[in-house]
UniProtKB/TrEMBL annotation:
TM helices/strands, residue ranges: none
Record-given protein name: Two component transcriptional regulator, LytTR family
Top-level division of the source organism's lineage: Bacteria
UniProt keyword list: Phosphoprotein
Record-annotated Response regulatory domain positions: 3-116
A Gene Ontology molecular function term of the record: phosphorelay response regulator activity
Domain HTH LytTR-type: 144-243
Stored InterPro entries: CheY-like_superfamily, LytR-like, LytTR_DNA-bd_dom, Sig_transdc_resp-reg_receiver
4-aspartylphosphate PTM positions: 55
Pfam families according to UniProt: LytTR, Response_reg
Length: 249
């Protein structure tokens, strides 16, 4: 059994999650439900749960502020949230899990399974990546956590040359020659890296513009990357690419 605390200021949302967990995740033992973030700080410190289901949007303290108070964090965390693109991008960047409200039972089971089946003890690094996105002033975090088949790998963003789509997976091509297969779509990766100098140049490719060595003309054209790879450019993305490559024009 894994001990868990639910933190959500919406009573009905918290109770709905309790019901879903009892029905779909029998290995999760809910030790407390907190409808107040300040109360949650005390309860989590007392009970020391292994897992916390944490709402992001709460009065007085939001989910990220609560984590900062509890740092260093010793529990796994699954966020629950209504759609918030900036928050979701930050969570993805750190390879932590989130559930959109209303919570889907299959998504819940998958998130719990990922947490309980973790292969690498990288929780503290993940939390540092996440919280760095919400500190003032907000620096652009230059590390990213990638869930691979072997566990989580944390790399420098500027070590990524380009990413290619493979169905529901993304292949990361790194400067040292490594190729990492990540269980995220290219669209998700594009959203995560939009603060950095990356551009989707084709439905199958996302490139680090700092690693482009040459643009070859054509209907859409192609890019020669720093490792010698040739990347096709779609006709619809050609104009945007050329603007990005020639920012002064």
């Amino acid at each position: 059994m894994i001990s868990a605390v639910i933190v959500d200021d919406e009573h009905y949302a918290a109770q709905a999650l309790v019901t879903l967990l009892k029905k779909n995740c029998p290995d999760v033992n809910i030790t407390a439900v907190c409808n107040n973030a300040k109360e949650a700080v005390k309860i989590i410190r007392e009970l020391q749960p292994q897992l916390v289901f944490l709402d992001i949007e709460m009065p007085y303290l939001n989910g990220f502020e609560l984590l900062e108070i509890l740092a260093p964090v010793s529990f796994e965390c699954i966020f629950t949230t209504s759609y918030d693109q900036y928050a979701i991008r930050a969570i993805r960047f750190s390879a932590l899990d989130y559930l959109l409200k209303p919570v889907d039972p299959e998504d819940l089971k998958a998130a719990v399974n990922r947490v309980t089946g973790k292969k690498s003890p990288s929780l503290q690094q993940q939390m540092e990546l996440l919280l760095s996105k919400f500190q003032q002033p907000r620096p652009v975090e230059n590390r990213i956590a990638l869930p691979t088949l072997e566990g989580l790998q944390i790399i420098q963003v500027d070590a990524i040359l380009y990413c290619s789509s493979s169905s529901n997976y993304t292949i990361f091509n790194l400067a040292d020659g490594q190729k990492l297969i990540i269980s995220r779509t290219l669209k998700e990766i594009e959203e995560m890296l939009e603060e950095h100098r990356f551009l989707r140049v084709h439905h199958s490719y996302l490139v680090n513009l700092n690693e482009v060595r040459k643009y070859n003309r054509g209907e859409g054209g192609s890019l020669q990357m720093s490792d010698g790879a040739s990347i096709d450019v779609s006709r619809s993305r050609k104009e945007m690419l050329l603007k990005k490559l020639q920012p002064g024009k």
